[in-house]
Design brief:
This protein is an alpha/beta fold and 417 residues long. 31% of the residues lie in helices and 26% in strands.
């Protein structure tokens, strides 16, 4: 699907979609818990459906009730067939760890893009903890035989926080104590804090000291967990208001532990007119100045922040970009290519992405199948006009109704095949 984004009078109010990250984590904890759990306002997207289907393949009963999911936990068993994780890296990594708790063999496969993303550090860590795991060199597919006994595992902190989160989620169900040591600096630390926050809601406490996490055997218990609004997705509507009119996005928790809440401070530092009213963020069109920002702890903010820098006065530097080459796409290359097609001056040096604010012009954009790249250029399109985005259906990975939300805010859209 191709969507041509036009320039229009942007104004209106939309609800932030539920948090993708919290939905994944709540589903995992509920599936491992004793008893029934109610997850209120979960996100329904390609990625979260992949996690739901994987848990159901392992014997977890999940049913919808209005906007809620009822999950009957415990009793997970060896799957009858392979588990397809689609393009959801979170599903693959978290379910690999969950399968290490099951007495039997599980095989997890992935879509074409995810099959190129390394998983071996997690496989090595699970083997250290007593499971029997293997992958295809560095990559999926993955074969896991349980069960996790316990012990000590070490992981580099600069690869993926999802590896750490996967171990933390599974470790309370191990036979013995688990110690997870992070080697070097832990990037995307807020995502690990989100994992621990969700675990606490389901009755499990993980202790942390320095670069180590300590987990004692404990049963998860059923809980009611409400999914808050997603700051990663809301960032695009906030940026849309700053670029092209006035927007309000509601359903957000201002004290959220989500990493991408940092986008507020970054846009304000650039001169963006942003105000908070209750659970809403109101953004108004503003003149922006260049910024120097480290995105290592909030990598999902990089695409929309880079888009904002392309219309700001001066030369911006976004550092901490190394891991962005191993997301749904090479986000560094995808943003550089798209921005240059629109007339921006971009330079990548080492771990930094430099953007010179420019007069942008219409262009056709290939988001490389990456939902956040597509959304970032859609927002730019609302300011510049006549930006055509190929493969626009990729937004279903995290926000299936994204294009409808843009249209409701007055952004002209022309949909073609």
């Amino acid at each position: 699907m191709k969507v041509a984004v036009g320039k229009g009078d942007v104004e209106g109010r939309v609800e932030a979609p539920p948090s993708k990250s919290f939905t994944h984590r709540a589903l995992i904890c509920a599936a491992l818990a004793d008893g029934e759990s109610r997850i209120s306002r979960p996100l329904s997207s390609d990625d979260t459906e992949a996690t739901r289907e994987a848990l159901e393949a392992l014997g977890c009963a999940i049913r919808s009730e209005g906007r809620d999911l009822l999950v009957v936990g415990g009793g997970l068993h060896e799957p009858r067939s392979e588990i397809f994780c689609r393009e959801s890296g979170t599903t693959l990594r978290f379910l690999t760890a969950v399968c290490s708790l099951i007495d039997g063999e599980s095989r997890l496969t992935a879509g074409p893009s995810l099959s190129k993303r390394p998983i071996k550090p997690l496989i090595d860590a699970l083997n250290e903890l007593g499971a029997e795991c293997k992958c295809d060199g560095e990559f999926p597919p993955v074969v896991v035989r349980g069960v996790m006994r316990g012990g000590r595992a070490a992981l580099p902190g600069a690869i993926s926080s999802q590896f750490i989160s996967a171990l933390l989620l599974a470790s309370p169900m191990a036979d013995g104590d688990v110690e997870v040591e992070v080697l070097g600096e832990l990037e995307s630390r807020p995502y690990v804090m989100m994992t621990m926050e969700t675990q606490r809601a389901f009755g499990v406490d993980v202790s942390a000291e320095g670069g180590k996490f300590f987990i004692k055997p404990k049963r998860y218990r059923g809980a009611r967990f409400e999914i808050e609004g997603d700051w990663s997705s809301a960032a695009f509507i906030i940026a849309l208001g700053v670029m092209a009119g006035e927007t309000e996005v509601f359903g957000l928790r201002s004290s959220s532990s989500q990493a991408d809440r940092a986008i507020l401070d970054m846009i304000r530092e650039m001169g963006g007119d942003i105000s908070i009213r209750g659970d809403s963020i109101i953004a108004r069109e503003s003149s922006l100045s260049a910024i120097r920002a480290d995105v290592s702890n909030c990598p999902d903010s990089f695409p929309i922040l880079a888009a904002l820098c392309a219309i700001a006065d001066g030369r911006s530097e976004l550092s901490g970009i190394r891991r962005l080459r191993f997301k749904e796409s090479d986000r560094v290359a995808a943003m550089a290519e798209g921005l240059e097609r629109m007339g921006a001056k971009v330079e990548v040096l080492g771990d930094s992405f430099f953007v010179e604010g420019s007069e942008l012009h219409p262009a056709g954009i290939d988001p490389k199948g990456d939902h956040r790249i597509a959304m970032a250029f859609a927002v730019l399109g609302a300011r510049v006009g006549n930006v055509a985005i190929e493969g626009a259906e990729c937004v279903a990975k995290s926000w299936p109704s994204f294009w409808g939300s843009l249209a409701s805010l007055g952004v002209p859209l022309e949909v073609g095949s």
